[in-house]
Amino acid sequence: MSLLIPLALGACALSPATSSLLQAKEISMQDNQGQYQPYTPGMKLPEGVFPPMQGYTHEDLVGAAGKRAEVVLKEAGVDPTLARESLFALAQHLNQALEAQNVEYQIATWYKKPYENPADRSKSVADMAESFGALAVRATTESLKGSPLLDMDKAFLRNYISSAGDGVHDLIATLNKPGA
Questions:
Q1: Are 107 and 173 in contact, with CB atoms under 8 Å apart?
Q2: Element (H, E) at 4
Q3: Quick check: 94 and 126 in contact, CB under 8 A?
Q4: With contact defined as beta carbons under 8 Å apart, do 14 and 130 qualify?
Q5: Helix 154-173 to helix 118-143 angle, to the nearest 10 degrees?
Q6: Phi and psi for 177 in degrees, rounded to 5?
Q7: Which run of H or E residues covers position 27?
Q8: How far apart are the first and last CA of the chain?
């Protein structure tokens, strides 16, 4: 089993000093050279690490980004074949970025860990939404390398890229809504 788990997981709430999950030091619990391992029921996880939560898996996050980006493509009248290819590239790059950070495990663990102060959970969720939304922006930007979409105007590109980031951000932020 191979998981890269941030050292701080389960140890403390995110604070301004630790708000960037992407910069957290990582420890490796690995058998396969640090490769991401999807969760399977009954899989043994390191102490303090929770399995991915339904609705907040990598697949869900990629879907949220893709739905928002697809709207931008349709509104701009992008050729359907180019739109499909672009969304496929976005999904591929974003999934790879999410797996590299074990995002679905981080979301579950930071959300489910016990907090002395409930406001700390809300802060952690807000920090995750911001950090992983930014991760989606970077992955979406990477997905455009060599794409004909780069010939479109800057406003379109900005809207396309930010829509994917907003999709990931907003999905994670729903954890702060009552009943989540």
A1: no
A2: strand 3-6
A3: no
A4: no
A5: 150
A6: -85, 145
A7: strand 26-29
A8: 30
Q: What is the pLDDT of residue 180?
A: 67
- Which ranges of the chain would DSSP assign to H, the alpha helix? 58-75, 80-101, 103-112, 118-143, 154-173
In the 8-state DSSP scheme, what is residue 5? E
Q: Which residues of 34-50 are buried (b: 16+ CB within 10 A; e: fewer)?
A: eebbeeeeeeebeeebb
Measured CA to CA, the distance from residue 40 to residue 59 in angstroms comes to 15
Give the pLDDT of the chain (180 residues) as one tens digit per residue.
333 333 233 333 343 333 333 333 232 333 445 688 899 998 999 999 999 999 999 999 999 999 999 999 999 999 999 999 999 999 999 999 999 999 999 999 999 999 999 899 999 999 999 999 999 999 999 999 999 999 999 999 999 999 999 999 999 999 999 876
Residue 13's pLDDT is what? 36
Strand partners for 29: 3
Model pTM score: 0.82
Q: Are 7 and 25 in contact (CB under 8 A)?
A: yes
Give the orientation angle of helix 103-112 with respect to helix 118-143, to 10 degrees. Answer: 170
